[in-house]
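#lab-general

N.A. 3:47 PM
ok so I finally got the sequence cleaned up, no stray characters, all 150 residues accounted for. can someone with queue access submit it? mine expired

B.Y. 3:52 PM
send it over

N.A. 3:53 PM
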Amino acid sequence: MLKIITALFSAILITGCATPQKAPRDENLFPIMGQTLEVSDEQLAIYRSRWVTSPNIVIEASPYLTKSDIQWSLDLISIYESLQNQDCQAFKLLQTRDFAPAVDTDKHFPNLIPDKFDYVWEIDVCGKQRNYRVVNPKGSSNFSVHLLVQ
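B.Y. 4:20 PM
back already:
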Protein backbone atom coordinates (compact mmCIF):
# COMPACT_ATOMS: atom_id res chain seq x y z
CA MET A 1 0.00 0.00 0.00
CA LEU A 2 2.88 2.35 0.78
CA LYS A 3 4.28 1.74 -2.72
CA ILE A 4 0.96 2.73 -4.27
CA ILE A 5 0.69 5.89 -2.17
CA THR A 6 4.32 6.80 -2.92
CA ALA A 7 3.77 6.20 -6.64
CA LEU A 8 0.64 8.36 -6.62
CA PHE A 9 2.41 11.31 -5.01
CA SER A 10 5.77 10.99 -6.77
CA ALA A 11 4.65 10.34 -10.35
CA ILE A 12 4.22 13.29 -12.65
CA LEU A 13 1.39 12.28 -14.93
CA ILE A 14 1.30 12.09 -18.72
CA THR A 15 -1.46 14.21 -20.19
CA GLY A 16 -2.30 15.19 -23.71
CA CYS A 17 0.40 17.84 -23.27
CA ALA A 18 3.01 15.21 -22.43
CA THR A 19 4.10 15.68 -18.84
CA PRO A 20 7.24 13.93 -17.57
CA GLN A 21 7.04 10.63 -15.72
CA LYS A 22 8.90 9.54 -12.67
CA ALA A 23 9.11 5.79 -12.82
CA PRO A 24 7.43 4.12 -9.87
CA ARG A 25 9.16 1.08 -8.40
CA ASP A 26 6.16 -1.17 -9.07
CA GLU A 27 6.43 -2.50 -12.61
CA ASN A 28 2.63 -2.78 -12.91
CA LEU A 29 1.84 0.87 -12.06
CA PHE A 30 1.77 3.49 -14.80
CA PRO A 31 0.82 7.16 -14.52
CA ILE A 32 -1.44 7.75 -17.52
CA MET A 33 -3.52 10.87 -18.21
CA GLY A 34 -3.80 12.04 -14.64
CA GLN A 35 -4.36 8.64 -13.04
CA THR A 36 -2.19 5.78 -11.85
CA LEU A 37 -3.15 2.76 -13.87
CA GLU A 38 -2.50 -0.69 -12.43
CA VAL A 39 -1.97 -3.18 -15.24
CA SER A 40 -2.15 -6.94 -14.74
CA ASP A 41 0.59 -9.23 -16.01
CA GLU A 42 -1.84 -10.47 -18.68
CA GLN A 43 -2.54 -6.92 -19.87
CA LEU A 44 1.20 -6.16 -19.89
CA ALA A 45 1.75 -9.17 -22.14
CA ILE A 46 -0.75 -7.72 -24.62
CA TYR A 47 0.91 -4.29 -24.59
CA ARG A 48 4.36 -5.86 -24.93
CA SER A 49 3.22 -7.95 -27.90
CA ARG A 50 2.59 -4.74 -29.85
CA TRP A 51 6.33 -4.05 -30.11
CA VAL A 52 7.68 -5.37 -33.40
CA THR A 53 11.29 -4.65 -32.37
CA SER A 54 13.39 -6.01 -29.56
CA PRO A 55 14.28 -3.81 -26.57
CA ASN A 56 17.90 -4.94 -27.00
CA ILE A 57 18.54 -1.87 -29.17
CA VAL A 58 17.83 0.25 -26.09
CA ILE A 59 19.69 -1.93 -23.62
CA GLU A 60 22.88 -1.73 -25.65
CA ALA A 61 22.64 2.07 -25.85
CA SER A 62 21.69 2.74 -22.22
CA PRO A 63 24.38 2.01 -19.64
CA TYR A 64 22.46 3.95 -16.96
CA LEU A 65 19.11 2.18 -17.28
CA THR A 66 18.44 -1.30 -15.94
CA LYS A 67 16.56 -3.85 -18.02
CA SER A 68 13.52 -3.34 -15.79
CA ASP A 69 13.73 0.47 -16.26
CA ILE A 70 13.81 -0.02 -20.02
CA GLN A 71 10.94 -2.49 -19.97
CA TRP A 72 8.85 -0.19 -17.76
CA SER A 73 9.51 2.72 -20.15
CA LEU A 74 8.55 0.66 -23.21
CA ASP A 75 5.42 -0.55 -21.39
CA LEU A 76 4.47 3.04 -20.53
CA ILE A 77 4.93 4.14 -24.15
CA SER A 78 2.92 1.16 -25.43
CA ILE A 79 0.05 1.83 -23.03
CA TYR A 80 0.00 5.54 -23.80
CA GLU A 81 0.15 5.03 -27.57
CA SER A 82 -2.50 2.28 -27.42
CA LEU A 83 -4.86 4.66 -25.63
CA GLN A 84 -4.14 7.52 -28.06
CA ASN A 85 -4.15 5.37 -31.23
CA GLN A 86 -6.63 2.58 -30.60
CA ASP A 87 -6.52 1.34 -34.21
CA CYS A 88 -2.74 0.94 -34.12
CA GLN A 89 -1.59 -2.45 -32.89
CA ALA A 90 2.13 -2.33 -33.76
CA PHE A 91 4.90 -0.06 -32.53
CA LYS A 92 8.45 -0.12 -33.80
CA LEU A 93 11.46 1.26 -32.00
CA LEU A 94 13.41 2.96 -34.79
CA GLN A 95 16.44 4.08 -32.83
CA THR A 96 17.72 5.52 -29.60
CA ARG A 97 20.06 8.47 -29.55
CA ASP A 98 21.24 11.29 -27.35
CA PHE A 99 18.96 14.30 -26.98
CA ALA A 100 20.40 17.05 -29.18
CA PRO A 101 19.23 20.57 -28.22
CA ALA A 102 20.14 21.86 -31.69
CA VAL A 103 17.78 19.32 -33.30
CA ASP A 104 15.27 18.32 -30.60
CA THR A 105 12.83 20.73 -29.02
CA ASP A 106 11.23 20.03 -25.67
CA LYS A 107 8.48 22.66 -25.74
CA HIS A 108 7.00 21.59 -22.42
CA PHE A 109 10.26 21.38 -20.49
CA PRO A 110 12.73 23.74 -22.19
CA ASN A 111 14.68 24.30 -18.96
CA LEU A 112 15.02 20.64 -17.99
CA ILE A 113 18.69 20.06 -17.18
CA PRO A 114 19.85 16.45 -17.56
CA ASP A 115 22.28 14.69 -15.27
CA LYS A 116 23.61 11.22 -16.19
CA PHE A 117 21.63 10.60 -19.38
CA ASP A 118 19.30 12.29 -21.85
CA TYR A 119 17.99 10.10 -24.68
CA VAL A 120 15.45 10.34 -27.46
CA TRP A 121 13.67 7.12 -28.39
CA GLU A 122 12.23 7.34 -31.89
CA ILE A 123 9.10 5.23 -32.25
CA ASP A 124 7.04 4.41 -35.35
CA VAL A 125 3.34 4.35 -34.47
CA CYS A 126 1.48 3.13 -37.56
CA GLY A 127 3.56 5.20 -39.93
CA LYS A 128 3.89 8.28 -37.71
CA GLN A 129 7.16 9.00 -35.93
CA ARG A 130 6.84 9.89 -32.26
CA ASN A 131 9.83 10.88 -30.15
CA TYR A 132 10.03 10.23 -26.43
CA ARG A 133 12.58 11.83 -24.15
CA VAL A 134 14.03 9.52 -21.51
CA VAL A 135 16.04 11.68 -19.14
CA ASN A 136 17.60 11.72 -15.70
CA PRO A 137 16.87 15.26 -14.43
CA LYS A 138 19.69 16.96 -12.57
CA GLY A 139 19.42 16.44 -8.82
CA SER A 140 17.21 13.35 -9.17
CA SER A 141 18.04 9.69 -8.71
CA ASN A 142 15.11 8.76 -10.96
CA PHE A 143 14.26 9.33 -14.60
CA SER A 144 11.35 10.68 -16.59
CA VAL A 145 9.73 9.59 -19.85
CA HIS A 146 7.70 12.05 -21.87
CA LEU A 147 6.52 12.66 -25.39
CA LEU A 148 8.28 15.39 -27.34
CA VAL A 149 5.72 17.50 -29.17
CA GLN A 150 6.66 17.85 -32.82
